Predict the 3D structure of the following.
Amino acid sequence: MATEKTSARPNSAAAEAADRVDDVPGDDQAQPSPAEAIHELGGTLGRAWSEARDSVSDIGAKLGRRARNVRDETREAASETREGFQEAIDDMGELGQEIAEDAMELGRSIGLSVSEFVRRHPMRSIAIAAVTGAIAARLLRRRGR
C-alpha cells in the first residue's frame, strides 16, 4: 500500500497541476475545432453582412425620401416664383397700358394746342416751321460729311 500512497502522491500533484492549467481565466471552454471556428466565423460574417445590407438599405430609403421632399419643395418654390412673375408681368402690362393712355391724351392735348396756335398765329407758325426746317437741314448736312 505504500506504493499506492507514493504513486498517489505524484498522481495528485499531476492532477493539481492539471487543475491549475484548467483554471486559467477565459479558458473554461474547450477550444473549437478549425471547422467549427470557420463555421462560426462564416455565421458571424453572414450576420454582419446582413446588418450592413439592412443599414445601407435604410440609408437609401431615407435618402430617397429626402430627395422626394427636396423635389417637391423645389417644384413648389418654382410654382410660387412663376406665379409671382406672372403677377409682375400683369402689373407691368396694366402700367404700360396706363402710360400709353396718358401719352395719347398728352399727344391729343399737344395737337390741339398746336392747331389752336397755328389758327391764331399763321405767319408765326410758317416762320417757326421754316427756321426749324433750315436748322434740321444744316444739321443733317454736317452729319453727312
Notes: The helical segments are 2-22, 34-120, 122-144. The chain is about 90% helix and 0% strand.
